[in-house]
Amino acid sequence: MAPSSALPTDAGLVERATALRPLVRAHALRTEQERTVPSEVVAALTDAGIYRMNVPRRYGGYQTPLHTQVEALSEIAGACGSTAFTALIQAGCSFIAALFPDEAQDEIFTGPDVKVGGTLIPDATAVATGDGYVVNGTSGFATGCRHADWHLLTVRVESGDGPSEVLWTAVPMRELEILDDWHVSGLAGSGSSSVVARDVIVPAHRVLPVDPLLRGEFPSKTSAEDPFYRMPVLLLFCAWTAPDALGLARAALEEFTERIHRRGITYTNHRRQHEAAVTHLQAAEAAMKISSAELLTRDFVARIEAGEPFTQEERARIRAQTGYVARLCKEAVDLLASASGASSLHREVPLQRAVRDLHALNVHSFVNPATNLELYGRVLSGLDAGTPFL
Q1: What is d(CA 106, CA 97) in angstroms, rounded to the nearest whole number?
Q2: What secondary structure letter does DSSP report for 52?
Q3: pLDDT of residue 339
Q4: How far apart are CA 315 and CA 390, in angstroms?
Q5: 156-200 residue pLDDT tens
Q6: How, if at all, do strands 150-157 and 165-172 pair?
């Protein structure tokens, strides 16, 4: 792999991601066991330009078309769901960092391969000072924090006479403590530990108010003039999470159709599983679910790329679609796993990991299919969606 400095554009990005699959797959079990993406895999992703996808061009980034990002991330997910999830979160947080004031961007993007993590749940608190904020608190689910350079820490500014103001604060990772508390069953290698801020001073120029951002208002002057950064942030996270589900499901189907030629169905007369009619039905149904998920993803990615304005119904529909994509992929992989026999339970068999990773993705609060369907259903029924996170 050529060094990333030799990759000035995103031409061939998907092909480079595909070429990384053997390496990422070879480290998938280790990624899960160590609960974070190994340094050599991070280095390979860096060399391929994966972390440049949403970094502004003026800092050497790509500003990669959304559909290309989805394709590249799905290739990585086909080898390891945790590695892809870490990459998609950091890709998304780089996009958000590009909406901060330009002075903050100059600090963050010291190179095109900078790695930015972040969380949206405002568990930490901030107190205003004369020229910024003092931040304290613990924030969970800080995906990829051990390899990040910066963290976008969401904080609450308490108000005695009204709702709290929510801010994103850009903090160098060296100023945060990482807790060793990521012990989970799915997406276990994403390194989504908690981070702790203790009297961290954040200057005013490294603050991004969340409520105006959800309305499409942000302080960066240079990015405000660029159509790429006018795409709605929350709808982009719908697009970024979908390839993790798609890549896992596609790889599971590929693995299943290979395994059925090497094994029989125990306690039956079927010496080769691929000869059994029940296998044909299982493979076909799983394939149809995955194809349906692919079509839904293409639909909402194309809608996002077409640009604003988006009605509340359109936003709710896209969020519902991303949840439904995750559900379809989970159902497909559950079906394949149930037909794969006890031998597929071994830790070195990727299929069992895909099951757990997809279950984890489906309970993510922004992806959860039931929640997202309810939001869309409320809008279809003439009610407010009941959330600003659209």
Answers
A1: 10
A2: G
A3: 85
A4: 6
A5: 998 777 788 999 999 999 999 999 999 999 999 999 999 999 999
A6: antiparallel
Separation between Cα atoms, residue 269 and residue 348, nearest integer Å? 28
Q: Which two tokens stand for residue 238?
A: 């719908």
pLDDT surpasses 90 at 368? yes
Contact 373, 316 (CB under 8 A): no
Q: How far is CA 169 from the centre of its chain?
A: 20
Distances from the Cα of 60 to the Cαs of 3, 4, 97, 304, in angstroms? 14, 11, 15, 24
Quick one: tokens of 110?
């010291």
Q: How many helices (H) and strands (E) does the chain have?
A: 14, 8
| Domains of the chain with bracketed CATH | 4-108 (1.10.540.10), 116-208 (2.40.110.10), 231-380 (1.20.140.10)
DSSP E strands, 77-129: 116-118, 124-129
SS3 10: coil
The one-letter amino acid code at 140 reads: G
In sequence order, what E strands does 182-263 have?
Answer: 193-203, 207-209
> Which residues are CB-contacts of 332 (< 8 A; sequence separation ≥ 6)?
249, 252, 253, 285, 286, 287, 289, 290, 293
List of long-range contacts for 29-35, beta carbons under 8 Å, 24+ apart: 29/347, 29/348, 29/353, 31/80, 31/82, 31/83, 31/189, 32/82, 32/188, 32/189, 32/347, 32/353, 33/189, 34/189, 35/182, 35/183, 35/188, 35/189, 35/191
Are the C-beta atoms of 283 and 253 separated by less than 8 Å?
yes
- 154/169 Cα distance (integer angstroms): 6
Does position 2 have pLDDT exceeding 50, yes or no?
no
pLDDT (tens digit, 9 = 90+) per residue, 53-84?
999 999 999 999 999 999 999 999 999 999 99
For 165: left if phi > 0, alpha if psi spans -120 to 50, otherwise beta; the answer is beta
CA nearest to 138, candidates 158, 150, 121, 163: 121
Question: If you ran DSSP here, which 8-state letter would residue 366 be given?
Answer: T
Residue 269: exposure state from Cβ atoms within 10 A (0-12, 13-18, ≥19):
exposed
320 touches 365 (CB < 8 A): no
pLDDT at residue number 1: 41
Task: Look at residue 334 in the predicted model and tell me its pLDDT.
Answer: 97
Q: With bands split at pLDDT 50, 70 and 90, how would you rate the model's confidence at 6?
A: low
